[in-house]
Specification:
The chain is an alpha+beta fold. Helices cover 37% and strands 10% of the residues.
């Protein structure tokens, strides 16, 4: 089974080979969606607020959420 990173790389290679703008845009959307599935470390500031590393939305509150409610990025809460 391929990893998400491997699929993204293959899509980027296929995107380079296409000359049809509609297909190019389709590849971009697919890559963007898959990249959101790769967890990114959140930013935790000294005053305790946590922010999404992609859109900078405040994501702290009750419990730890798995995805940013604003942009959909998968979040990594590990220090």
């Amino acid at each position: 089974m391929m990893t998400i990173e491997e699929v993204i790389k293959q899509l980027k290679d296929l995107r380079k080979a296409t000359l049809i703008e509609k297909n190019y845009k389709t590849f971009n959307v697919a890559i963007e969606v898959l990249e959101k599935e790769i967890p990114k470390k959140i930013y935790i500031y000294d005053y305790g607020k946590a922010h999404c590393p992609v859109c900078n939305t405040d994501v702290h509150g009750i419990g730890k959420i798995d995805f940013c409610f604003s942009c959909g990025q998968k979040l990594d809460w590990e220090a």
